[in-house]
Amino acid sequence: MTFHSLIKATVVGAFCLWFSIGTAQELDETNTAETESTSTFYNNEARQRFFAFMIGGHRAFTSGDNFMGEGLEGGTGIDFRVQVYVYKYFFVGLASNATYFNVRNQELLGSYRNSRVAENYVYLGYEFLPAEDFRLGLQVSVSGDVDFKNTGFTTTDIAEQHDSARLNRYGFYLNYELAPHFMLYLDYGYNVLHTDIEAPSAYENFFSKGTYSTVGLGLVFTIGRRDLISRFLE
């Protein structure tokens, strides 16, 4: 699945879920209104959610003795994520992101100026409630792929070049609840790419892995007041 088709599927899926569980959400809110009126919003049960949709931007920082750390300079990017709370605060999610880099060493990488990295991955995680109005989430990717699109070639007739990689991502986020179903988030991610770039044997290790970090900021919209398993058990 391409970057654009995954974004489209993510958005369509989010809206389908929104409408399909709208009635269930209204029922949940009615059933929990009395509970919330006699307890604080810090109560774990009152803060349980079913589905979250996140959109935001980030800044990338390359690192390490590899082709990204030595040859690329991190720029900005965009993030799309959806996640479902399977049981309590354990969740599974799908992410589709794009990060843009500038080439700072063409002698190492080749005669192009820019590189766009499109990341698609499935992740697992868990949320903690450290304080009122705050949520701390930890997450790790379980399956992911990356597409490099290199552009701005200066010495050839090539318009663009593509390479692929496997992604491992580890990260955490902090959400601030502006309202029960609307939040701001700040997140950090550490990305390790295992590439399929063909290179001379002397440079195989240098091009076989890339590492970079991202710091992001964005919005979160949530739906529902019960996790997925609880919806089936009750």
TrEMBL record:
Keyword Signal appears in the UniProt entry: yes
Name of the protein: Outer membrane protein with beta-barrel domain
Phylogenetic lineage: Bacteria, Pseudomonadati, Bacteroidota, Flavobacteriia, Flavobacteriales
Signal peptide: 1-24
Alphabetical keyword list: Signal
